[in-house]
Design brief:
Helix content is 50%, strand content 4%. It has 134 residues and is mainly alpha-helical. The chain has one domain: Transferase(Phosphotransferase) domain 1 (Transferase(Phosphotransferase), domain 1, Orthogonal Bundle). Strands 1-2 form a two-stranded antiparallel sheet. α2 runs antiparallel to α5 and α5 runs antiparallel to α6.
Length: 134
């Protein structure tokens, strides 16, 4: 039994009702500044896999580095987070002391098109490479 915000990692949306239910669930259970772009306007038919969570993980990694999510400022201004997310533009502070490969990894995780995001095994491999080069 799946409870809370946990759900199956692969989901096939076959009709409008399924799309609307998933969109409503995402609106209720996902923090807006960490919610993957594909959850703002779910189409039918469509499919989702683990890479939806990679977006949220990328937001978390960004927050660990910069002490706020990449979309906190948009939210705090009252601007549309959905529009900001769909633009694909992520701003990074000008001055940071992180390995550029870490910023590159975050950027790859925050690609709007879920099909272009890495799977978790790729993220882990990149993180290990970054750790070894530091």
């Amino acid at each position: 039994m799946i409870t809370g915000s946990a759900t199956a990692s692969r989901v096939e949306i076959k009709n409008y009702n399924e799309a609307q239910k998933l969109q409503d669930d995402a609106a209720e259970r996902c923090s807006i500044t960490y919610k993957a772009p594909e959850f703002f306007n779910i189409q039918s038919p469509s499919s989702f896999d683990e890479r939806t969570d990679i977006w949220s993980l990328g937001c978390l990694l960004y927050a660990l580095c910069f002490f706020k999510s990449p979309l906190d400022e948009v939210y705090e201004r009252g601007d549309s987070v959905a529009l900001a997310v769909s633009s694909g533009v992520i701003y990074y502070p000008q001055h940071y002391s992180f390995n550029p490969s870490l910023i590159d990894l975050i950027s790859k995780m925050l690609v709007v098109d879920a099909q272009q995001r890495p799977f978790i095994a790729d993220v882990i491999q990149s993180a290990k490479s970054i750790q070894l080069s530091s």
